[in-house]
Amino acid sequence: MGEKPLKILACGDVEGSINAVFNRVRTVQKKSGQFDLLLCVGNFFGSSPEAQAEWQEYKSGAKKAPIHTYILGAASQETTRFFPSADGCELADNITYLGRRGVFSGASGLQIAYVSGREGRQDPTPAHCFSPKDLSQLVEPLISNNQFRGVDILLTSQWPRGVWQYANSPEVNTKFCGTTSISHLAFKLKPRYHFAAVEGVHYERRPYRNHVVLQENTQHVSRFIALATVNNPEKRKYLYAFNIIPMKSMEASELVKQPQDVTENPYRKMVGENTLSDPTVQEPASQFFFDLGKKQRGGGRGQGGHRQSQRPPFDLDRPKQPRRPPQPSGPCWFCLASPQVEKHLVISIGTHCYLALAKGSLTPRHVLVLPIGHYQSVVELSSEVVKELDRYKMAVRTFYKSKGQRCVLFERNYHSQHLQIQVVPVPEDKCTTEDIKEAFMLQAQEQNMELMEIPEHTDLKQIAPPGTPYFYVELDSGEKLFYRIQKNFPLQFGREVLASEAVLNIPERADWRECKQTPEEEESLSKQLRNDFQPYDFALED
């Protein structure tokens, strides 16, 4: 298909030898050109004073990783202190912690499943371990899609038990190596590449089949590669370079080609039915009920109607099949299926997104565009969610324009659990778009923040990988402003700029908590806005 392959590096346990691995990466890139990603499995951090001092140079910004680096969480109790939470986040410039478990989908469509730490054998599960519940919550949303063929890459710290069956033997004591739960995981997810570490050796298994010959249709093969520790004295291989075209971009005939040395699947005999099901995992709410008036129709919306939620956080090429959106790990005020959501504020419900009146709104038409599923930022959204988000943005812009108002959008991906696009109208006779832009720039400068202007058609994912904290503004001219948040970012910054004398001149409304209304006042305002927005609401027609 002419698709350009991605160039990827995978690395074993770094154990604090960060300079060594990045120096090696620079050498490889000087010889072979720039790579797209570095994926690190096993323990990235070390506990020695030297290792901690080395990390501090990257954390402080004195040094920068030469490549986008994605790491797994702690595989030992001693290194848990380097990870601020179980959720993924940026730890330093160009170094991102993926999270406890999940799926990372790049802009290219490459799909990387990951599980951090070791298998937990006690309850509650220690911070450096994973539980059966973690595995089931990773697997079930993927395999419930009947179009699921597998993932491109699987990252685990521990080896899968029995991976050496039908193949060459590794230089480890196989009696104590690996865990069966990772074998089950690999069997279910069918990764094209599976990387692991923590055993201190390099082992590249012969590729194995994911189908039963003569009984099932031919499927792609899987390759398991274990990597050694960085700077190991035996000079065992710890860095692995490879090219890959995302599965979703490949022709089926090309994807399922079988190499000559392919073997049987090493896990099939040990895997029974339901090996990853966990009876303690309760089904999250997957329906929501609203009364938005009889005019809100279609797709189950309307008087006493419901709409099934539809989209998990993975782009799995199944646009017509209804699926649950990603669920929060705890209470969330903005997930549409959540009992905490204030339903009377909802203005419109689409397939993947919804529109709501902002609580403590700056002006009567200040709204939020939010995903129905639990996503933290725009850069985590699948393409179809982004598409509907853009439709809502366009609809609100047109609505504001009909009222003689400019449209200003902003997002703060910092100390926020659920993505909220704030959409604020500014009367055209109040100020120009250039005035609004200048107000953002000046207030950023006053707070020693460098707000950058980025090209109109730039994809945020190109400059802010998942986990990156940022603040983003979109003006009605199409101009975009971006700030990569370092620390101590003022949470009300967007409101403060728009409430300032230079823009709306309502400084007393800069803090939403000072603008609270009674539920009755909110309901009245929502009803009026719902009626006014109706001619622009594409969700009524879809």
Explain how this protein is built.
- The protein has 542 residues and is α/β, with parallel strands linked by helices.
- The protein has two domains: 6-271, 4-Layer Sandwich (Purple Acid Phosphatase, chain A, domain 2), CATH 3.60.21.10; 343-540, HIT family, subunit A (2-Layer Sandwich).
- The protein is 21% helix and 20% strand.
- The chain contains ten helices and 24 strands.
- It has an eight-stranded antiparallel β-sheet.
- α3 packs parallel to α4.
- It is globular, with a radius of gyration of 25 Å.
Question: For the report, how would you describe the main beta sheet?
Answer: 8 strands, antiparallel
The CATH class of the largest domain is: Alpha Beta
- Count the E strands: 24
The percent range for helix content is 10-25%
- The average pLDDT is 86
Shape estimate:
globular
CATH evolutionary superfamily of the largest domain: Metallo-dependent phosphatases
Estimated radius of gyration: 25 Å
User: Architecture of the largest domain, according to CATH?
Assistant: 4-Layer Sandwich
Provide a count of the helices: 10
Assign the CATH topology of the largest domain.
Purple Acid Phosphatase, chain A, domain 2
Give the helix/strand class. Answer: alpha/beta
Number of domains: 2
Estimate what percentage of residues fall within beta strands.
Answer: 15-25%
With strands numbered from the N-terminus, the spatial order across the biggest sheet is 17-18-19-21-20-23-24-22
How far is the N terminus from the C terminus?
A: 33 Å
Low-confidence stretches: 273-322
